[in-house]
Amino acid sequence: MARIRGVTETDRATLAGQVAAVLDRDPQAVASLRASLSGRRDAASAILSFELAARLQQEIEAIDWVTAEQKVTSPDRPDHDVCGWSDGILVSFAFHKGHLGDWTQRHCDAQDAASHVARTPALWTAFANRTAALAARLTASGS
Hints:
Radius of gyration: 21 Å
Number of domains: 2
Order of helices and strands: HHHEEEHH
Strand content: 15-25%
Oligomer: single chain
Low-confidence stretches: none
Mean pLDDT: 88
Number of helices: 5
Distance between the termini: 42 Å
């Protein structure tokens, strides 16, 4: 496949370095890759190649997902719980030695949820609130 696309043996080290930089979340490498994919997507759209443009958009979204801030594990963090509440649903994530060990969701009124939510580290508040809101919406829709 590389040969068909014009990639030679001498390109290997450069490409491997670029991939490693993106996976390391280097801002310049990620921005460069996003710009390249966006340019290819826009060019595909301009010639009405919408299927290709859609695949390139999916690749952009995949890059965004892969390079998003990672919060599931952190070996330097102590044991803690992360809790969020929304519309009667409390979600809880239990971390042990920096790793996600368990998560639950249950019906809970605001007063009972308050003490759990208050112990959530500030770094996790937005995540916990988004997760609780999603859980509440899914519960309300019967999903």
